[in-house]
Amino acid sequence: MTGYLLRRVLQAAAVLLAITAAAFGLFYAAPSDPALIACGPKCDTAQVEAVRAGMGLDQPIASQFFDYLGGLVTGRTIADVDGSPIRCAAPCLGYSYTLHQPVLDAIADRLPVTISLAGGALTVILLLGVGAGLVAALRRGTAADRLLSGFNLLGASVQIYFLGYVLQYFLVYSTGLLPLPQFVPLADHPGRWAAGLLLPWLVLGFVNAAVFARLTRSQMLETMHDGYVRTARAKGLGTLRTHLKYTARGAAAPLVQLLGLEIGALFGGAFITETVFGLGGVGKLAVDAVTGNDLPTVVGTVLLAAFFVVVFVTVADLVVAWLDPRVRLT
Amino acid sequence: MNQATAAGPRPRGAAASPALRVRELTVSFDTPRGPVPAVAGVSFDLAPGEVLGLVGESGSGKSTIGLAALGLHDPARTRVGGSIRLHPAKGSGGAQDPAGIEVVGAPEAVLKRVRGARVAMVFQDALDALSPFHTVGAQLAEAYRIHHRDAGRREARERAAAMLERVGIPAGRAGDHPHQLSGGMRQRVVIAMALINEPDVLIADEPTTALDARVQRQVLDLMRELQAETGTAMLLITQDVGVVAAVCHRMLVMRSGRAVEEGATDRLLAAAGHPYTRALVGAAPTLRTAPGSRLPTVEEPDPAPRRPAAEQERPEPAVLAELDGVRVDFPGRRTSPLRRGRPVPAVRGVTLQIARGETLGLVGESGSGKSTIARVLAGLRRPTAGAVRFEGRDISRAAVDPRLRRELSREVQLVFQDPYASLNPRRTVAEIITTPLRIHTGLDAAARRNRAAELLEQVGLSASHLPCYPHEFSGGQRQRIGIARALAVRPRLIIADEPVSALDVSVQAQVLNLLMDLRAELDLSMLFISHDLAVVRHFCDRVAVLRSGELVETGSRDAVFNAPRAPYTRELLDAVL
Q1: Most buried of A106, A223, B79, B159, CB within 10 angstroms?
Q2: Which CATH number applies to B320-331+343-575?
């Protein structure tokens, strides 16, 4: 198991390095001059050149990349537009001249929103998706199965911005059952934190639950006929306990892997949901950076999203290896 | 071999109530096209301590009876009628009700107490039957704790360890997962798990079919020993008459969901009343069947004796194909991302010849390298070292030289083990058979179709089968299609890799009869690969015995079977039931 773990962590590190290089390439793929944008429309040529030098854009690409990598590991000092030095602590994702703050700080300001949103949505996905899939599999062919399948198809086919506005209209404006979605830090007021995010959780969770429900159902149905499940029943184990202990374990691997991807994706920001409910999370920051040509922030958010995906996919693989000892061999 | 005495003394006390009493049992499965009967009115008794063999071919309903005795059928899709009544042995602590426990229609709560405690099951494929996620010790301990609620974890663990030792597995292996054990050990674990609660009735469904002969022998001996020791009644489900002869006191022959004949094993084996039983008993060749004789089948239970296999006068059999010091290594598993895995040898320096017109039998246990040799000879795998010659021409590069491989495939064709996997389900029979003709001959479409029709007739099918798809045929028919495809280009050498192992015994007899006819008619040379020594003895002129990639013995059939030189060959022969 240790060897397997080590190999997977090394692989993840290699993937992250490759993504960093690719994201860094964005600076040069962009159609506009980063220095010009950073400096702003009122700059003259000399000022732009000063900014260019301050940003290190006059250096060879390789040395810029190594500076960037070095910043990620140890932090570095970056010159602001006016030439004043700014300390960017490790892991330094660069400095946003648009936001006038290190990219990491900008992300850190918004990360609580994103993580709160993702955490709640994941809970909904697990309860609604995996739960519905389990029930549908155990009650296959019944009305409950068909109802849940239909419900999930609805979730898979409806768009967040449609469902979000519809629910907001009914639950907030018409009936007043829920407050208008807003973000209140968990530490400040847990009750208002949950109330303010409940609607986004439901919408984001419901829309993503469908895939999990379908996969859970089909995996459970497939595993149910495996020999070891029959053996467990032949031992005298009850139906429900058999399915929870044996069938679910056999069915879990693809679900865990999908869940790893989903967690990574949600932690990278849920732009549409954030926009619909006016929440300022990482997703919104990323899209604003793209539209505003704020390249350091774009690269930073891309890296962060990639980081979460790679980390959670790796964690998921390790969980799968823990669940199924045969995986550790390969 | 008829070893009826091997079953040991009949249990006394047949007058006492049977451990298991089955009356007018019917089982049918609901399908979209209506109910399909699997068992239609079967009745029998199983006395305490008795071993009853439930014998029949696939689809005869024998496994269904086993599942019904545990109430393991899906109640939503299965109708079970009649009666299955358990009479717990005295002192076994079960229900005190003298009428016993009725399994058919019993509520789940009752069935849960029966399963694994009063009636336990040993399934065919231990790798499939054991959970890959839990250690074998944990699986055994669980079986114990389910029925001993007040037993602690420690007691269950100790009991599991003791049971492992009892079936011949060191208790230290309790922490292993099933994939870390050999096939024989896995089956021992399954047996230990079934017997851990000392059940009154043990149902064993093809418990040794997936095992090599020597391991099969050991496992059967173990089962019989444990069964005699505990006095458990055993229902042994199998289609292998040899297994029945070795283990069972009585046998019940089933066909299409009905009992055909029932009686003492020795009597039925020696003089069965029903022609079906006679066919089933005679269909599998034994080490005493006259080699090359026509085997009885269900359609033809008493075949006319084949004209004595004329000892063909072959003054100097010319070598057709030849392996010379062939070695094949498989790439090993990497132990670290930086190092290459150590190569695993599959074939270690094998030299053998196949003469023109000869059938060479290649015998060995799983993993001995039989199929690898077949692939090398067919030009599908390049040997790591050594030469492969066909008609004196070096063909060892065929696997990497498409032109050579194509030329070779005109002369050498394969028949595979699994007739379900080896035919493309999306192609018609006509397409399957004419493809090699299209590649290798200049025949036009009409001529190819005529040839395909002729081939189908030759293998006992008819031209009307040409537009059908493989799924419309039975296993035996599919294997005939595979043979027709192999014969299409009139090859000189047929490599048949376990061609009858996946078939029912009577179908196996049909296909062997067909292959013997075709071989004589077309003067074919064959490499016949099998793990079944009796079949090889029946079918082959010469025999090569393979062990862990090395030849341990080669010789004429009579020499190898009558006077084996290698101790390993003797071991293999001793294991034949």
Answers
A1: A106
A2: 3.40.50.300
| Facing A326 at nearest CB: one of B70, B179, B333 | B179
Q: Which pLDDT does position B3 carry in this prediction?
A: 41
**Per-residue pLDDT tens for B68-90?**
999 998 888 889 999 999 987 65
Q: Which one is the CATH code of B4-118+199-283: 3.40.50.300, 3.40.190.10, 3.65.10.10, 1.10.357.10?
A: 3.40.50.300
Q: Which of residues 4-43 of A touch B (CB under 8 A)?
A: 7, 10
Enter the tokens of residue A60: 């060879």
CATH number at A110-329 = 1.10.3720.10
Is A231–B129 a contact, with Cβ atoms under 8 angstroms apart? yes
Q: Are B205 and B128 in contact (CB under 8 A)?
A: no
Structure tokens at B290: 């006259």
pLDDT for B155-175, tens place per residue?
999 999 999 999 999 999 999
Sign of CA dihedral B459, B464, B467, B470: negative
Residues of A in contact with B147 (CB under 8 A): 236
What whole-number distance in Å separates Cα of residue A291 and Cα of residue B358?
A: 79
CB neighbours of residue A136 within 10 Å: 26
Contacts of B113 in chain A (CB under 8 A): 236
Q: Which residues of B touch A325 (CB under 8 A)?
A: 132-133, 177, 179
Q: Are B21 and B87 in contact (CB under 8 A)?
A: yes
Helix (H) and strand (E) counts in chain A: 16, 4
Nearest to B131 among A141, A246, A329 (CB): A246
Over residues B277-302, mean pLDDT: 84
User: Does the predicted TM-score (pTM) go above 0.90?
Assistant: no
